[in-house]
Structures are given as structure tokens and as C-alpha cells.
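U., I forgot to send this yesterday:
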Amino acid sequence: MSKKHKPEKQQGYLHGFTPEEQDRLRRQARFLEDKVHDKLPYRRSRKLLEVGCGVGAQTEILLRRFPDLHVTGVDSSPANLDMGKSYLESLGWAHERYAFHQLDAQRLDFEEDQFDAAFLCWVLEHVTDPAQILSEVHRVLAPGSPIVVTEVQNASFFVDPYSPKTLAYWMAFNDWQIELGGDPFVGAKLGNLLQQVGYRDVTTKVRTFHLDNRRAGERAEFLAFWTELLLSGSSELLRAGKVEEETVQGMREELEQVAHSRDSVFYYSFVQARARVF
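Result:
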């Protein structure tokens, strides 16, 4: 990409907007695809609104899985949007099937009933007013439209062998996200939020990674992914004085030990909510 952007700040977002982070987001989407995109209710949808489309990582999966779908993506980051457009333009089969807009999701510049589906993934954890965003999405969805919201529930994280530096880092990670205006526990609140702003047929499903000796290969892959995820926030946490370098290095060593322990355990759950507009 030839276009340059100044470093960005986004409320509630502590991973940064570097090319390395943009690449990580695409790999993360593919890594979690089977759980996040399992049996999504978009077979009859044609015009989907994706809030927080970012680098186009989830957009690519949606377009690939639903060949008749057109995705309108909105995001607040111009750097991520440029990266997303460049990525999707490189896929010949995606041409003219998407449109990206730099917008504040709390004030969507769309008419009522403009879309027949909506998708939000790892977005509400980074915002101060998730109810307002869900309300705006509700406004622009036609009656009968499905919405799927996938979010973190960071209180569920557990590893064995016991890793105190990792847990200390994780608490600082979550506390700093809250200070930035986000909510690392918003997944547990999705049912209330959707019902509060008028959605109906609200359901939630807890999707869990419980990896031990029964799935050793997957456990090793996930530990590598999780280590990368944690470290993606380390520069911001160090800069803000929320953790010490000793804690980050200790976390690295502990996770390396977990990865090589014969009886290690990894556990994490997130929440996916589904609802409809009536």
C-alpha cells in the first residue's frame, strides 16, 4: 500500500494498527472460522451489514461461504479499511460484492430497512455504548432480518500448569481495556443488550475451547495463537505503564512451559448471540 496513515487510536482497542496486527487479524479469523461461522443464518440474505469490518478478514469468509451475499462493511479505522479493500481486491471472486465505509457505528449513515442481515464479531468489546450500536443496526435492518454478534468473555481464560505472570498480564490486559472504554466481558451481556434495544428471538450459545491431552495437536496450535494474541497488546500495556517488562517476559516463559507440558490444559469461552428484527 502506498497510502500512509498517522498512528491511530481507537477507544477500547489496545492491539494497535500496525501491518503485523492487520496480518494477525486475518490469520485469527481463519483460525477461528469453524466456530465463529458455524451454521450462520444468512442463506436467504442478500445485503448484509458488517459492523467493524476492519481489515476484511471476516468479510472474506462471509463472501466465500455465501456466494449470493453483498457485504457493506463499516469501520472507524481508515488504515484498516484501506488494508481490507486491498485484500479483497486481490480476490477476483470478491469484486463488486462489498463496499466499505469509514463511519461511526453509533450514527450509521444509512436509511431504515436497508439491509436484510447483520454481522458483528469482536467489535462490542472495544466500544463504550454497545446498546447504541445495536440500536442503530436494528434501525437499518428490514423486518425479519437476522443478526449474529460474537463477543469475548475474558473471565473464562484458564491454563495449566499454573501461570501467575500470565494471569497478572491478563488482568492488566482486561483492566486497561476497561479504562480505554471497552468491555472484555461483554459476551455474557449480549442477551440483555439485544433484548433491551428491541430484538426478538434472542438466543446465546457459549462456544468453548477446552484443549488437553485428548486434542494435543489442536492444543499446541491454539497455545501458539493465544500467545500471539496476548503479545499483540504488550507494547501498548508497557507504554501505558500497566505491566512491567518482567511480567511480559515471565508470561512468555510460562506459556512456553505450558506449550511443552505433557499434561497442559487450555480453556477459554466466547459467546455468540443470534436474534431477529420484527
